[in-house]
Amino acid sequence: MSAGTATRSDERPGGTARLDPPPRLSGRSRLDRIRARGAWGFAAPALLVVAAVTIFPVVYSIVLSFADVEVGYEGFTIQSFGLGNYAALLQSADWYRALGFTVLYTVVTVSVELVLGMLVALVLERLGATRGWMLALMLIPWSLVTIVNAQLWKYVYDSTYGVATWFFGLFGDAPVILGEPVPAITGLMVADIWKTTPFVAIILLAGLVQISEDHYEAAELDGASTWQTFWRVVLPQLTPTLTIAVLFRILQAFGVFDLPFVLTNGGPGTATQSLAIMGYKVLFQDINIGPGAAIATSTAIIVAAGCLLFLRAFRNQAKGGDS
């Protein structure tokens, strides 16, 4: 009997026979393997490029963070390996100040953007034909390159002809916004919130439109108020979308570089110096390759640990809600 012919198995009651399906031909699996090898062959050049421009620099930076590097006219040489760069980092007051500013900046901006983004998303969800126009207008701040956005806010905060200086001057002596620590930090946060809130709102809006109307109708039949509906119906179902928004924003905010670099260059003093700016100055201005790589590596470790803890807390909360 040929391979493609169905075979007879046990007899059923009544004299009818049950036919087993024909066996899977080995030629089809061989064809799948050939196609898979061909796909990997076509993807290999792109994967090699990605590895060359992303994976290799990251690994090399981690290696340099443990190295004692000597820089000369003909390049740099690695003298030895050890934990000296990290030991010096943990004893550096500048690193702790940069870490404190970066954490404060991340917590404040992400929290405010989530609240404002949620309010904007709730309003947009209830709009009809005008929703598309409002989304287009909201995307304007987000679509601006951060360097352009920072330069615009630098004009706004200018101590001579800036709009913010003129506004505060109506109520008395206007502060030099970018020349004093607290106003400079606040000004940076305002600029970031103005640019990034539309991004958060659009992510949350995508989650809101996925919630079925049946849930709202059920809450209304149960006599739930608008506030109770939000906390007990909307927010639990929006938690996965909120998690995505928070993770995106933590990754962006913790690695902030371009906005403070253009607006304040880390000043006044080191008040607005983030970990990314500190790493840039140590690595490219002071030409301290080992300590600069240690700053970059420590920043990546801290933000990765924070994201993993957040995901673990979210997973535990989701399990508790399911139970």
UniProtKB/TrEMBL annotation:
What membrane topology does the UniProt entry give?
Answer: Multi-pass membrane protein
* CDD domains referenced in this protein's UniProt entry, alphabetically: TM_PBP2 (cd06261)
Q: Does the keyword Transmembrane helix apply?
A: yes
Q: Where in the cell is it found?
A: Cell membrane
Q: Which residues cross the membrane?
A: 38-63, 103-124, 133-153, 190-211, 289-311
Where in this chain does the record put each ABC transmembrane type-1 domain? 99-312
**SUPFAM superfamilies per the UniProt record, alphabetical:** MetI-like
Q: What is this protein called?
A: Sugar ABC transporter permease
Q: Which organism is it from?
A: Curtobacterium citreum
